[in-house]
Amino acid sequence: MNIQTEKLGLIEWISKLNDATVIQKLKKIKEDYTHSEDWGDSLKKEELESIQRGLKDLEEGRIHTHETARKVYEKYL
Q1: End-to-end alpha carbon distance in the chain
Q2: Which of 9, 33, 39, 77 is most deeply packed, by most CB within 10 A?
């Protein structure tokens, strides 16, 4: 399924609609989608702080390669 083709098909179909009930339902779907919660908004304070620490570590070069991590933790895998 090509999403662009699907969207164009929906646009064409909507442009020909004359049923106010269907249009109201589509508006409700749009409204619900627009106001849906971003996953980041549901993170706890500790989770946000952990992400910030990780980003700071990245900026300051405190990182390890995947290969290094595998060597350290291979006994647990």
Answers
A1: 38
A2: 9
The amino acid that residue 57 corresponds to is D
Structure tokens that stand for 5 in this block? 């083709």
pLDDT in tens, 1-30: 799 999 999 999 999 999 999 999 999 999
Q: How far is CA 76 from the centre of its chain?
A: 31
**CA angle, 20 then 23 then 24, to 5°:** 85
27-58 as b/e, with b when 16 or more CB fall inside 10 Å? eeeeeeeeeeeeeeeeeeeeeeeeeeeeeeee
Coil, strand or helix at 9: helix
